[in-house]
Design brief:
Blueprint (H helix, E strand, L loop, with lengths): L1 E7 L5 E4 L3 H11 L2 H9 L2 E3 L2 E3 L3 E2 L7 E4 H10 L16 E5 L3 E6 L3 H13 L2 E4 L2 E10 L8 E6 L6 E6 L3 E6 L6 H18 L7 E7 L6 E6 L2 E6 L2 E6 L1 H10 L12 E3 L3 H12 L1
Antiparallel strand pairs: 1-8, 1-10, 2-7, 3-4, 5-8, 6-7, 9-10, 11-17, 11-18, 12-13, 14-17, 15-16
Helix pairs in contact: 5-6
C-alpha cells in the first residue's frame, strides 16, 4: 500500500537540507507510534539474521530552490531558524532547499499495519518539528492498488542502489556500489527481492525478477546522497522489470534494492510518451 503525504508550514515556506533523506526518515519515525518505531528500530522483520524494515519513501515531489550565502541567511532570519544546513559534519558552507508551498512525498509498505499506524498518527498528531521548523500534515492520500503484468517499464521515484562491502586489512570497510550496467546489479536486485518475498509471503517466489536499463545514462542518472555522514550512490532513470506479478508487487510496495528505509528504491510504472506520440502520428498518417 502507498500513501502520499503533504506537509506545510505556517511560515512563508520552509528550508530542508540539500540531502534530506535522513530528516525525512526521522519525520517518519517520529510519526510512528512508539511501539512501531521501537519495533522497526530494534527488531524489524528478520530473515536469516538479516533485518528488514519493509518500508520505503520517495524523493520530495516538488522541486525546491537551492539557496546559500546571503539568500539562505535572509530566509533563516525570516523563518526564525537556528539550524545549520551542512551537507556533512565537516562542511564549512551551508546550503539548503527552499520550499515555498510545503512539500509532499510517497510512503510505501507491504505491511498494512505500518501504513495504518503512520496514517492515523499523522492525522491525530498533525504537528511535527523538522530541521527546527514547525510543519503540519495538510493531507494524506491513499493511492489506488495497482495490478502488474509480467513485464513493465518503471521510472524511479528515488534512487536504486545495491552494493557489496569488503574489509581492507581486516579493519576499514570498503563499500562498492554497482552500476546498472554491471552484471552484479540485476543479480543483487533479484536476491534482495526474493528475501523480501519470503518475509512477506512465507515461501519462495515461483520465478525470478530481472531489471534492465531502458532510458539511462551513467553520468546523468548517478545520484549521490549523504545520509547523515555516509555517502551512498544510487541510480535514477527508466528501467524494464520482468518477473511474476507477485514479486513485482513486492518490490513496488517494499522498494527495489537496498537501503529502502533510507529513501531508496521507490518507483512507479512508466508510460513511454515517445512511443505513444509515434503511434498517434502513425494513426494520423
Amino acid at each position: 500500500m502507498r500513501l502520499k503525504m503533504k506537509y506545510i508550514s505556517k511560515e512563508k515556506g520552509l528550508l530542508l537540507p540539500m540531502h534530506y533523506n535522513y530528516v525525512l526518515q526521522a519525520l517518519l519515525y517520529n510519526t510512528f507510534s512508539n511501539e512501531i518505531a521501537n519495533f522497526l528500530h530494534t527488531e524489524g522483520f528478520t530473515l536469516n539474521n538479516r533485518r528488514f524494515k519493509l518500508f520505503t519513501f520517495s524523493r520530495i515531489l516538488e522541486k525546491g530552490s537551492r539557496v546559500y550565502g546571503k539568500r539562505l541567511a535572509e530566509l533563516k532570519s525570516q523563518l526564525n531558524i537556528n539550524s545549520k544546513f551542512l551537507t556533512r559534519k565537516n562542511s564549512k558552507v551551508e546550503e539548503a532547499l527552499y520550499f515555498e508551498n510545503g512539500f509532499s512525498f510517497y510512503f510505501s509498505s507491504p505491511k498494512n499495519f505500518l501504513i495504518e499506524d503512520i496514517g492515523s498518527r499523522a492525522v491525530s498528531i498533525p504537528k511535527s518539528i523538522l530541521s527546527g521548523q514547525e510543519i503540519f500534515i495538510e493531507s494524506i492520500e491513499v493511492l489506488p492498488h495497482l495490478s502488474f503484468s509480467n513485464k513493465l517499464n518503471i521510472k524511479t521515484l528515488s534512487p536504486v542502489t545495491v552494493y557489496s562491502t569488503a574489509k581492507i586489512e581486516g579493519k576499514r570497510k570498503l563499500t562498492y556500489y554497482y552500476s546498472p550496467h554491471e552484471k552484479e546489479f540485476p543479480d543483487l536486485i533479484q536476491k534482495n527481492a526474493e528475501k523480501k518475498y519470503v518475509l512477506i509471503n512465507g515461501v519462495k517466489p515461483k520465478g525470478s525478477l530481472n531489471i534492465t536499463p531502458l532510458y539511462f545514462n551513467e553520468k546523468r542518472n548517478r545520484a549521490v546522497v549523504y545520509f547523515k555522514d555516509t555517502r551512498i550512490e544510487g541510480w535514477t532513470g527508466v528501467f524494464t522489470l520482468e518477473g511474476e506479478p507477485d514479486i513485482i508487487n513486492v518490490v513496488y510496495e517494499a522498494g527495489l534494492g537496498s537501503k529502502n528505509p533510507e529513501g531508496f528504491g521507490m518507483w512507479e510504472p512508466y508510460e513511454d510518451r515517445r512511443s505513444q506520440d509515434s503511434e498517434k502520428k502513425h494513426d494520423k498518417d
